[in-house]
User: Fold this.
Amino acid sequence: MNTEALSAYLYMYLSSNRSLNSKMIMNERMCKVIKMLQKIIEKFILLTKLSNWAKNFWNSNCSEIVIKSRQLQIIWKIQSTLDAWNEYLKHNDHKNKIIQQVKHAHFRSQMHELSNALKSIWCFAKWVRIKS
Assistant:
C-alpha cells in the first residue's frame, strides 16, 4: 500500500457526506480512524528488521518473540499487577525456549553441512584441535 493511496482513502473517509452534528458521531468516526491507523502501524511500522549484528541463527520469528516479550514487560511496568507479571514470565520462558530451539537447529544444520562437505571437514577438525 503506497502512501498516496492511503492519504486519498483517509481524505475520502474523513470528508464523507455524513454530517458530524453530534459528539457521538464524531467520537465514532475518530475511533474508526484511530483503529485504522493502529492497524496500519502494526502492519507496516512494527515490522522487524534484522540488524547487521544479528547472529546467524536469528530469524524474524525470534525478533517478533523478543518484541512481544518487551511489550509485556512494558505492560507489567505500567500496570504492576500479578497477572501482568505472570504473563510476562510465561512469555519470557517461552521466548528463551524458542531461541534455544532455533540455536540448536542452526547448530545441527551447520554440523550436517560440514559433515557432508569433503574439504571443510578438515577445517572443522583443525578448529576442534585449536579449541580443545
